[in-house]
Design brief:
Main location: nucleus
Structural class: mainly beta
Keywords: Nucleus, Repeat, tRNA processing, WD repeat
Shape: globular
CATH class of the largest domain: Mainly Beta
Radius of gyration: 17 Å
Order of helices and strands: EEEEHEEEEEEEEEEEEEEE
Largest sheet: 5 strands, mixed
Subcellular location: Nucleus
Helix content: under 10%
Strand content: 35-45%
GO cellular component, one term: nucleus
Distance between the termini: 20 Å
CATH topology of the largest domain: Lipocalin
InterPro entries: Trm82, WD40/YVTN_repeat-like_dom_sf, WD40_repeat_dom_sf
Length: 229
């Protein structure tokens, strides 16, 4: 399932199949680019051959990964609009940076790849960190301020859940407190302190079906979507 997002710098991005995406400059519709990842060391994101890492991921893909709930092609900009993240179907998240190249007429370059153990079911970003939720209920954190590709391990897991996670959001309240919101298949929304993720602030239990999405309205209010309608 494709998703769409718009950056604070007026770029529109659409996720496609096969780990690709399309970006358009809303200020100049002639500026657009089809993003096809290969490796983070590639000089251009326009190369179409399959990387060794991609092939290895396909070979090790578990049969139970092919679930409809996880077939979301996630895509999201950082708040400052300088980075674009695309989640593929091969346990990798591709991070692009805004970088115009006059010679190749490209506007976004693949900076790095984050490889995860389980396919991401949701992620959220700030300008500094990436939070990844997976099908087993774990949440991983990695730094966005580096340009080096990374394979996440158990040491990068900051908290777990007893159910598959469907969405995640990072919150800074008007009192400058930081929290992580997570939603799951078992009707719950959980509010967890950050960075001390072992400290659970509380739960929202108003839904009677899976909670598929959670969005911030402002610093103190959220909007959630659920299978209960």
């Amino acid at each position: 399932m494709s998703e769409i997002t718009v950056s604070s710098t007026n770029w529109l991005a659409i996720s496609l199949r096969n780990d690709t995406g399309i970006v358009f400059n809303l200020n100049d519709i002639q500026q657009w680019q089809h993003l096809r990842p290969v490796t983070a060391s590639s000089s251009s994101s326009e190369v179409t051959s399959t990387s060794t890492v991609d092939k290895q991921q396909e070979k090790t893909e578990d049969d139970d990964e092919n679930t409809n709930e996880l077939n979301r092609n996630l895509i999201k900009f950082t708040p400052d609009g300088q980075k674009l993240l695309i989640n593929g179907q091969n346990k990798q998240i591709y991070i692009y940076i805004s970088s115009y190249d006059e010679n190749t007429k490209t506007y976004w370059q693949l900076q790095r790849i984050v490889t995860i153990k389980k396919r991401a079911s949701a992620f959220d970003v700030t300008n500094e960190i990436l939070l990844i939720a997976d099908k087993s209920g774990d949440v991983y954190k990695t730094d966005l301020l580096t340009d080096t590709s990374v394979v996440l391990t158990a040491d990068d897991c900051i908290m777990g859940h007893l159910s598959m996670l469907l969405d995640i959001a990072f919150i800074t309240t008007d009192k400058n407190q930081q929290f992580i919101l997570t939603t799951d298949r078992d009707e719950k929304i959980r509010l967890t302190h950050y960075p001390n993720a072992y400290n659970i602030e509380g739960f929202c239990l108003g839904h009677s079906e899976f909670v598929s999405h959670v969005k911030l309205i402002d610093q103190n209010h959220i909007l959630s979507a659920s299978g209960d309608g």
